[in-house]
Amino acid sequence: MKRLLIALVAGSFLAAPMASAQPAKPFEVAQVKERHVEKNVYRHGKTKIVEKRVVVKKRWARGHRLSPAERRRIAAVNDYRRYRLYAPQRGQQWVRVDNDFLLISVATGAIVSLATR
């Protein structure tokens, strides 16, 4: 029994560094989704009508890389002064996603800066 306990403790010491050395998935770390469900109930006579609306918001983080599919769906902001944003440097571009403004690198698609309105 004592040998078994010592072997388990020694195994846990050997397995701990290997488990912590696993690389984190950057996409899952950088992007957090917030889910909000709105439920409206209407009564019409004896029938009950339930409408559900699910809103999923994406939270962006600096360093997150946008996929080419995401980059095709977002709109570029050319009049950045209108929204009181500073001028992008060479190779960067302001884009608008809902009410969030993201400064992305054109070549890599990585988020350089964020602005929320």
UniProtKB/TrEMBL annotation:
Keywords: Signal. It comes from the Bacteria. Pfam families: RcnB (PF11776). Gene3D superfamilies: inner membrane protein cigr. The keyword Signal applies. InterPro entries: RcnB. Residues 1-21 form the signal peptide. This is Ni/Co efflux regulator RcnB.
